[in-house]
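Sample pair:
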Amino acid sequence: MNPRLIVWPALVAILLIVSACVTQAPPTCEPCAPTDTAPVVVAPPSPPVPEPDTETPRLQAARWSDVPGWQADDVAQAWPALQRSCGALTSDARWQTACTAAEALGAQPTKAQVQTYFTAHFRPWQVRNGDGSADGLVTGYYEPLIRGSETRTPRSAWPIHGVPDDLITVDLADARTELKGLRLRGRLDGSRLVPYWTRGEMAAQGKGFDAPIIAWADDPIALFFLQVQGSGRIALPDGSFLRIGYADHNGHEYKSIGRWLIDHGEMTLANASMQGIQRWARAHPKRLRELLDQNPSYVFFRTLPANDDGPLGALGVPLVAGRSIAVDTRAVPLGAPVFLATTQPNSTQPLRRLVMAQDTGGAIKGGVRADFFWGFGDAAGAQAGRMRQRGQMWVLLPKTWTPKPAS
C-alpha cells in the first residue's frame, strides 16, 4: 500500500481538527501544531516515568520557597543563556523591563546578584499537566560528531542532503492567522500537492533523488542519529570540521526504530538506548535499510558557521550545554527561564538548576516535559542516551505577565 495515500488524508484530518479546536477556543490551537524535530530513543530508568499528557497544560502560581534547589544552584552559570534569550525577545514588550535590567547587570554578575535580579523581576509558576499532575518526563539530547567527507569516497558513501528544490512548504497562517505555526509539506504531482517522499522512497530512488548533497557520511546509523538530534559536526579527512544544522524535513511523522526493534523481539526496552540501537545495527548490516526505513521522517540540513557556540535552537540562538532545554510551548513560552528539578541520568542524584527554554522537539509534548541539552561530543551523547527521568518544572515569568488559563 502506498504510504502517501495514507499520510496525506491524515494531514487533511489535522486541518479539520485544527479548525474544530479554533472554533472551540479561539484564537489559537497550539495543541494541534506539529513540531519539526524528533526524539532520541533512550533507555528507561527506575522508577518508571509517567506517560506524556495530551491534555492542555497549565501554570499554577508558586512562591520562590516552593522551588527546590533555588538557593543551592549557581544560577550565575545560566546568565549567558538568559542573555541569549533576551537578545531574541527584544520585540516582545512583556520581556523588555526584565531584559533591560539584565543588560544593566553586565556579562558576569555574581550568584547573589542573579538571584536578586530574578526575585525582583520574575514570579515562579509551577508547570502542571492537563490532568493537574506535577511530575513529567525529562530526556536528554546533544550535538553529535560523525565522520565524513565533502566528496564521495568508498568510505564516505552516505549522502547528507540539503533541502530539495521540489519540497513545498505550505504555511497555513497565510490562509488563516489562527493556524500560526502549522505547516504542511509536500511536492507537486502534476497540479496536485501530495506528500513528500518518505525516507524509504528517497533511498529507493538512489542517485535519482534530486537534492543537494552537503557532505557524505561514513556511517549510516551515525547519520540517522544526527538527523534525530537535528544538528551536529562532521569530522573531515583533513582534520577540519563542517558544522550542519536543521533546515527542513519531509513532513512525515517520526517513528521510533527502537520501538520497532522491541515490538519485533530484537531487543528489550531496557536495551533500547541510542547506543543499544547502534550495536544492533552494526551486528545486522543486511537489515540496516529495513530498520532505518521504519522511520519515514527525514531531516534536511544546511551548513552553519564554524564556531564554538552550541547549535541553534528553535528560538534562533545557540544552545548552552547544561543550561538550555527543549519544551512544549503550549505550557512554557519559548525563551523563558525555567527551574528544572530532576535527577542525573539513571540516578537518584538531584539535578536542580536554572535553564532556558530555547528549543522545541517533536517528542516534547505535555506540560511537564523537557529535553535537556548536554552539549557536544561522545560524553554528552552518553549522558543524553541514558536520560529518562522524572522531573518537575517552574517557569519564571516577568511580574507583569499573568499567563492565560488553560482553554
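The longest strand covers residues 388-398.
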